[in-house]
Amino acid sequence: MAGRTLTRVLSVKERLGGTLSASPNELLAVFSRYVNQGKGMLQRHQLLAEFEAAFSEDEREKLKGGVFEDVLRAAQEAIVVPPLVALAIRPRPGVWEYVQVNVNELVVGELSESEYLQFKEKLVNGESKSNFVLELDFEPFNASFPRPSLSKSIGNGVQFLNRHLSSKLFVDKESMYPLLEFLRAHSYKGTVMMLNDKLQSPRALQSALRKAEQYLLSIPADTPYSEFNNRFQELGFEKGWGDTVQRVLETMHLLLDLLEAPDPSTLEKFLGTIPMVFNVVILSPHGYFAQANVLGYPDTGGQIVYILDQVRALENEMLLRIKQQGLDITPRILIVITKLQLLLSIISVTNLEFGYANQKALLMNPSSSLFQVTRLLPDAVGTTCSERLEQVEGTQRTSILRVPFRNEKGILRKWISRFEVWPYLETYTEDVAKELAEELQATPDLIIGNYSDGNLVASLLAHKLGVTQCTIAHALEKTKYPNSDIYWKKFDDQYHFSCQFTADLFAMNHTDFIITSTFQEIAGSKDTVGQYESHTAFTLPGLYRVVHGINVFDPKFNIVSPGADMSVYFPHVEVDKRLTHFHPEIEELLFSSVENDEHKFVLNDRNKPIIFSMARLDRVKNLTGLVELYGRNARLRELVNLVVVAGDHGKESKDIEELAERKKMFSLIEEYNLNGQIRWISAQMDRVRNGELYRYIADTKGAFVQPALYEAFGLTVVEAMTCGLPTFATAYGGPAEIIVHGVSGFHIDPYQKDKAAEILVGFFEKCKEDPTHWDKISQGGLQRIYEKYTWKLYSERLMTLAGVYGFWKHVSNLERRETRRYLEMFYALKYRTLVSSSQPAASVPLAVDAESTVDGQNV
């Protein structure tokens, strides 16, 4: 048998150069079309469109699957400065290469990140005369730190970190000292936990563990810790190992196993049992944060329900763990927000996500206590946003702490946009630190930031207090507004992108760990760039150039998906829990013959199953696309009715996009003569009733359809599946990860309406032939939810991550000092300078999209 040999993978430059040698005419045909468009930027779809247009169908078939086509399909953008074309090539998520083609000379060259960005800056600066531009490069600080190399490992940082820690830190007795020191460092308000100073070496610890094990095996398993506390103190142990003999033995066996034969799973389990988190601070400064009457206010939406659901689950998990650890400690969670007031009595729901965003926050079940820190808004008439401290209803020790923005002139009494908060955040951080010290009488154990402003404040607090930090971005503005980096100067006076992107870079590099809802949030998909990935390399011309901003392979990234509140969203088959008192209202919504401001059009045959959708009425949510695919398919219309919940029939929207979609919806209903088969219901604000609405649709043996052109996560998908409703959702974005096609639901391509309609037809025809098929998909969806998408799983994972990354922070503290110093300099010399020059501007809607142009350039 022939011997195996290793072959080097060719770079994009080498592959494209080979194509140039073999097929120069084909390459010239395409790149000439790029150059002929003149100086500018071409996006991926434009590159592929020009490739398609350059050749006949037969010629394209010959090139199909070849190197040239593969390279172009991997290109995310091209910068054209005739006769040069520079390409940003992304062979796979998280991996980038840059090349430049001279079309006149037919020469291919390789570019570094810095060279590519410098070339890109010519779109704005022309030929720059400056010989020096500040370049940010975080890569050298992470060169010695472990990280995976496979794209499939992205978002599984804690698993990789556990493998690294278990292999490096338990090699010999000397390498075990960091763990010993970590266990000895635990205390709460002066009370020592885990180990006392009698145990000074790993050998002494191992010996004491054996003696403790022998003693515990001699007494009943349910003996409470208090009965052998004195004996354990003599051995060198303190409280925190467990509440009973059985629990203490389980914890000690994990540590003994680690000391003898370490493995990643055991390390994670052990670190998850250590008492580390008693006080949690959650930061979300911008917008209006209260438990009622705020949804629909500016910058106020789904994050409120997300955080309130999050803290309820987190408090429950903290209380459970503290009890199991045998401790008599009452934890606290503080939600820190801004104290604010505004005279608004009518809540607009036009731009909110149904499910999380369009509902009143539910009351919370009793639990531990957390603090959510927000702004104190002194002029917020009609809300609780002017109250300093507000108990989260239904919890034991979770509170909303509101701290106002202020400057040298005093307290800011009005609402300001999230784009204008930057000048206030440093002073705000100092004020928050003082308030936390007063409320907690202790240092927080975990700080969680939300959004760009919350994550900056979390970073400054964590830096000041030496606390473990968690980052939740939710949405990064840089990816929401394409090319807002290179054209930042056009918008900075009003939207301060320079401050925001600088804050984002600072926070994502400062934090100990980052959690996201999906893989795509980190690293996109095969064809799309992830939100964090877009910060790998970019430029703010004239300000600074980022050559290595964040590495999506960094083990700080972890996918921890939220769930739906199971007190509201539960399976339709749980008959005893069903909210049947809502049924008359739901039946009126769906089936009454009256048309009014709440519902338009009627359903003639109420015995047919219903396909149901609920979302904002905008272009991306694509509800008009659903109506069109339904209207075009006669068989689908014969099988099922269609119900959509969106918009507000009783109010004239001021949103241009919503008005256009509303007009289109009426036009499609008329064009396809859908009255009698469609019901269009206004946005529904009662979250609890909406849960029963999902279940009522399930009673009809219907389905939920989420047809968005792109969906970052897909909470309504989770809500529907949690209620047992078979779900069809977009293949673009988070739902592609939530649903396993054909098992727990179905993926549909919103750009291929006829094919999507046929998938729906196929499902309902099969259900007609075999009614158990509907039950099979319903159960498959529920199984998927229980496996991955519940708040209990979320809180368990978050607490475990806090333990693992708290340990990692301890053992790598000295090695991270260089990074901290670099970040301090970046903050002091760049962020502060930007903030000092920014003045709050009037708050108006931001309008930057892929179709916008600036001086003739695509923005």
Which features would summarize this protein structure in a list?
859 residues, alpha/beta, Nuclear Transport Factor 2, Chain: A, Four Helix Bundle (Hemerythrin (Met), subunit A), Rossmann fold, 32 helices, 30 strands, 42% helix, disordered C terminus
Using the coordinates shown, work out and report the CATH topology of the domain at 575-784: Rossmann fold
CATH class of the domain at 575-784: Alpha Beta
Distance between the termini: 57 Å
Q: Counting H and I runs of at least 4 residues, what is the number of helices?
A: 32
Structural class: alpha/beta
Shape: globular
Rg on CA atoms, Å: 29 Å
Bin the helical content.
Answer: 40-55%
In spatial order, strands of the major sheet run 22-25-24-23-26-27-28
What's the number of extended β-strand segments?
A: 30
Please give a quick description of this structure.
The chain is α/β, with parallel strands linked by helices.
